[in-house]
Specification:
- The complex is a heterodimer of chains A (about 120) and B (about 110).
- Chain A has about 120 residues and is mainly beta.
- Chain A is about 0% helix and about 50% strand.
- Chain A has no helices and eleven strands.
- In chain A, strands 2, 4, 5, 6, 9, 10 and 11 form a seven-stranded mixed sheet that branches. In chain A, strands 1-3-8-7 form a four-stranded antiparallel sheet, with no helix packed on it.
- Chain A is globular.
- Chain A starts with a strand and ends with a strand.
- In chain B, the strands form two sheets. Chain B has a five-stranded mixed sheet, with no helix packed on it. Chain B has a four-stranded antiparallel sheet with strand order 2-7-6-5, with no helix packed on it.
- Chain B is an all-beta fold.
- Chain B has one domain (about 10-110): Immunoglobulins (Immunoglobulin-like, Sandwich), CATH 2.60.40.10.
- In chain B, about 0% of the residues lie in helices and about 50% in strands.
- Chain B has strands at about 10-15, 20-25, 30-40, 45-50, 55, 60-65, 70-75, 85-90, 105-110.
- Chains A and B meet through strand 4, strand 5, strand 9 and strand 10 of A and strand 3 and strand 4 of B.
């Protein structure tokens, strides 16, 4: 079964450092997403990306965050200057563009970011 | 997006059928209902999705009444490995990108 893969699985970084989280979405999917989940809290939407541009973003996705699809397979989330409160599990997800049936979103296993 | 309400937690025993009901009173005409499962420190895993009536796949069934204001996820003969958080999500699935709003989910604990 095709799956969304993410790297790294776990990263520890110092406050103020830049972090890039990488994702390889399912190959025939056209929509890409980043979500995060702070320990013990809900899964929160960050951003969606389609046709090489951001489609929607939440209030969490401020200027310190950016996304990019640098090539035909990778989708990245960059956090420019990490803060302690950025510590969370970050999930990449992807979906096909479905018009007549459910447009299921598939999630990766997550990248656990710890900011110290 | 329609707000959903689920029980916070449920306990069951191995081999039993578990039914988790989700309320979504303000579901819109274009909204689909999707259920995800999440184990600790893992990504949400798609279980099942439906629009109306009944949907069944190899792991679960989804029952949706005619008014679509609620839905019930049915897990037949649960095992210990089904202990997880189950999320009900409701949202439109038009051609544009969508936001999925996860609530607190239902913590299902399967006991031996």
């Amino acid at each position: 079964e095709p799956e969304v893969t993410q790297t790294p699985s776990h990263q520890v970084t110092q406050m103020g450092q830049e972090v890039i989280l990488r994702c390889v979405p399912i190959s025939n999917h056209l929509y890409f997403y980043w979500y995060r989940q702070i320990l013990g809290q809900k899964v929160e939407f960050l951003v969606s990306f389609y046709n090489n541009e951001i489609s929607e973003k939440s209030e969490i996705f401020d200027d310190q965050f950016s996304v990019e699809r640098p090539d035909g397979s990778n989708f990245t989330l960059k956090i420019r200057s990490t803060k302690l409160e950025d510590s969370a599990m970050y999930f990449c997800a992807s979906s096909e563009r479905g018009q007549t049936s459910g447009n299921t979103i598939y999630f990766g296993e997550g990248s656990w970011l710890t900011v110290v | 997006l329609a707000k959903t309400t689920q029980p916070i937690s449920m306990d069951s025993y191995e081999g039993q059928e578990v039914n988790i009901t989700c309320s979504h009173n303000n579901i819109a005409t274009n909204d689909y209902i999707t259920w995800y499962q999440q184990f600790p420190s893992q990504g949400p895993r798609f279980i099942i999705q439906g629009y109306k009536t009944k949907v069944t796949n190899e792991v679960a069934s989804l029952f949706i009444p005619a008014d679509r204001k609620s839905s019930t996820l049915s897990l037949p003969r649960v095992s210990l490995s089904d202990t997880a958080v189950y999320y009900c999500l409701v949202g439109a699935l038009s051609g544009s990108a969508r936001q999925l709003t996860f609530g607190s989910g239902t913590q299902l604990t399967v006991l031996p």
